[in-house]
Design a protein that fits this description.
The chain contains 16 helices and 3 strands. By secondary structure, the protein is mainly α.
Amino acid sequence: MDNKSVGFYEEIEKQSKRLMSFLKWVLIAGIIGMALGLVGTAFYYGLLFVTDFRNANPLVILGLPIGGLAIVFLYHVSKREDDQGTNSVIAAVRSEEKLRFRTAPLIFVGSIITHLFGGSAGREGAALQMGGSIGNGIGKLFKLNEKDMHVAVMCGMSACFAALFGTPIAATFFAMEVVSVGIMYYSALVPCVFSSLIAIEIAKLCGIRGESFTIAAVPEFTAVSAGKIVLVSILCAALSIIFCIAMHNASKYTKKWIPNAYLRIFVFGIIIVVIQLLTRTTDYMGAGMDVIERTMHGEVNGEAVLLKLVLTAITLGVGFKGGEIVPSFFVGATFGCLLGQILGVSPSMCAAVGMIAVFCGVTNSPVTSVLLGFELFGMAGINFILIGVAVSYMLSGYYSLYNSQKIMYSKFDAEYRGNVWNYNSGEGH
């Protein structure tokens, strides 16, 4: 047999292996997508039910401290007192750190309790934790090797995020991008795409419609309007740094002040309730999607940025459960809307830019941010959103919501810097 024939058969063998790998991941991604489509749907309707119940019975927020005690107890009896939330999921993608399946029901129940009693938290961070742990569990059932387990975790993250928020493109790329900034895990592209699309279709069949917003007024793209958006983006980058610092320091200092987990969550639960009652509004309870919707019409309260930031930092910092992504949307949208009113440029456009810019700044995920802007707002104002993402990504520096996130490439030079960790990690730079 000549060399050409040998080369031909070797190529056939390689293509066969690739096809088998493709089919394997379509099967696994399909199962993960179906499972998390159902879990995401159950979570969505659970949050909707407790939110409606809380709105109909405002005094239920008085039970927040007791709800906090229940969360701490659940994590204690499950031996998950050291749970690091989304950080654990990100670490599991890049390292040999193991995820436990019990994380999924714990974050599910913990988030439901937090939202029922008016804690200030989102849902997508919880979705990432549920998705990662269930994806990991399904990977174990298929006896995947270590590298494939990492892909299964990303697959689960994408699926649950897509099911809950209705943005399959952003969900796909977020899981691949957020782990190591500057490096995209393209080996997970097929699994994440299939799991996201299957999960969102199941969610749609169950009556869930994805989030979308309409920008009330999109200004003409001129040097003046673009310049104002650049200024908004610079300030949003600074806000994203403040948001990250607040989120990490709330946990650090509340633990220092009150070491006992039960006492800590009870005391600060009371503080949260008092602040909520003093505001005389439900705007800062739960995720706050209705407030974000109002900013798209140019409506905002001046104190909204600070109150949401503080309440979210306390809520998640002391041990209540939920997500930090939608609160970052809230803070960015309200801040952008305020800046738009001050600068004399469409407040609704600035709200959209602020929402995406702050998300980019706290997650260091520019590709996801652009795609998220497209899925949430369509092509309206996409040039302004692109400016917001680019400026915020660069000027937010090496801060992050996630200690486990690693900055692989410099934000300021065309340089690989695999030893750069975000400032919150405590590692070297």
